[in-house]
Amino acid sequence: MPRSPVPLPKPEEVFTANLGGGVSCRLLLSLYADAHGTRPKATARLRPPTKPADFPPTGDDRATRLGGIVVAWNIFQHFYPYFEEVRTDWPAVLRDSLTSAATDADAAAYHLTLRRLVAKLYDGHAVVRGGSGVLPWDGALPLAWDWVEDKLVVVNTDPAHAGRVNVGDIVTAIDGTPTTERMRRMEALVSGATPQFVSYRAMQDLRNGAAGQPTMLTLQTPKGESYTVTLTRQPADDSPLRGPGLREARLPRCTELKSGYFYVDLDRFHDDDLYTDVLPKLARGHEAGGPPVDHRPIECPPEDQGRVPDGWPRSQLCRDIYGPRRAPQARSYHRRPHVGNERRRKPLHPARRIAHLLTAVSRV
Fold this sequence. Notes:
Blueprint: E1 14-20, E2 23-28, E3 32-34, E4 37-39, H1 62-79, H2 83-86, H3 90-103, H4 107-119, E5 139-140, E6 143-148, E7 151-157, E8 170-174, E9 177-178, H5 179-187, H6 195-207, E10 208-209, E11 214-220, E12 226-232, E13 234-235, E14 254-258, E15 261-264, H7 271-287, E16 293-294, H8 316-322, E17 355-357, E18 362-363
Helix pairs in contact: 1-3, 3-4, 5-6
């Protein structure tokens, strides 16, 4: 066997490090072997396993919980690319997570510990789902809600299962806990880059849970009347919204509110629909005296210019609205869902009657 050109550490040389909290490690720096195996030969006997061979590792077992935290933390430590941007104290997260996992009562509590660990990444792509000993999240409350003026407001209901709950009612408590407190707790479990995204996901997680699981809601009607109702989570698909049919009730996707003024929901349009359905209507509205509409955060691509309907102002549009300065440029950043990604500038059009088509709703 050829010798290494580089001097190697001796078999008895080890690397020793203090990991803190009374824990240290000793790591061999080299591994020697001969025809009979590795050197030096072990003299101590292996300890017999403390658990049976068919033991299922779940969050109910303390050693499994601690091992899971160590593995998860190290994966992010070595492969997560954005620690310089999020500026989180990742070693402190390890200490807090190990302390919590060591005392968690069961798998459900351990699931929350893992969610708090991942939340410190501040990345909306990071999610903790499922696991042994955790109730499946295969259901959702038969309603949809949104955070409106610092209140959790019902924006849609399933009449067959929502009882007396109506659109516009305010949820003041969930299972006896004030809604603001439940939101604060849930937001601590959500990983997201912006407060808007964290709030959005927290609202969905409050709605989701195991199918058949009852939840007591305390609500207040627009007239100020308070009442309590117990709703059962209904089976739902595995999408983050838990039942796409239960979103906020909206007008048809392109509705003329009055002569020349339109409501446009771009979430429900494909690109081809935009040119064949929306723009012709808006062009007619412009001719009828309605506001010019900047439907493009940047200039329309040359290959699409021919698709803009006759009578619709093309390259002149942005100059008409914003004056002789440059057209508004696209800017990508997170905003609250259904608000949009366009940088807003004060219009210079003398009429001041400008509609901006954003990701979901036309502001007229």
